Amino acid sequence: MKKFKIEHPDEALRPAIQEKTDNLNKPRGSLGRLEQIAMQVCLIQQTLSPSLAHPCHLLLGGDHGIEREGVSVSPREVTWQQMLNFTRGGGGVNMFCRQHGFQLRIVDVGVDYDLSRNAGIIDRKIARGTRNFLYEPAMTQEQFEQALNVGIEMADACATEGCRVLCIGEMGIANTSPSSIWMHLFCHIPLEQCVGAGAGLDSEGIRHKCHVLQQAVARYRENVPSPAHPSIPIAYFGGFEMVAAVGAMLRAAERHLVILIDGFIMTACALAAIQIEECCRDYMIFTHSGDETGHALLLKAMQAEPLLSLQLRLGEGTGALCAFPIIDSAVRMMNEMGNFKDAAITKYF
User: How confident is the model over 10-28, as a mean pLDDT?
Assistant: First the structure.
């Protein structure tokens, strides 16, 4: 598969960042998480004056063969209906992008509907949904590479326009199912703890979903040698929109962009990206802990401390967009807050 050249941010600048932060006219450490975020962004960008210029949001759409097994309360046509809704500006993602000044790119990576005539949707369709991973791999390795490249292309397009912060969201009915399996396989957490209600399954629906996913994992283990390269289970269970998100994250890290990680599905994609290139973790800010059953447990397993807990589970990247003002405040602290010397204030700590 494609190789990425991602390195941990150079730590040589850390003392200078810390000195600047400590000499802002406030008690040392008094802005808490904002100071931690500022440190991370400064290290990513290798500067004492960070920027969140030209924020971009990728909305990636795709359908899932596993939806045919009744693992979601929502039918697959909701995917294309929502994709069209996004082009009219009527989705939650549209509202938050407008509120926080994000440029929105809507990308069809694998929706089971012809959206090619809609000028508001970027057509990168690989197939009309993945195959049903209960019986066979969701995608071929060639399709995996195609999806990865879609994400790379989109991250490159944003970076070329001057983007310094990339947010990623998804639209794909049943995509909590592959997310749960990735979490199970990569974090070694019992599958039943990874499986939740998705868009609104009742307790019986959750039991059915868990049973289907257990069967799929058992068949995978029968047919795939272990250990396997991370790309194998990612391709076996993932959606085209999810693999594109993985590609976008890896490319964004390679280009030293700040990456905002949304809810359960995007956290699972972040987990997958980290399996491929561990260093990309340093470029990610985990924005919220959502209401999907496995999300908080997944964040804990990844030792990720989210910024918000608002009981969100919409997806689309909406939680990450909601958290953006906190990150913006951390950057403004570094660029706009005065220091003790310039303000002629005696250090009082």
Answer: 95
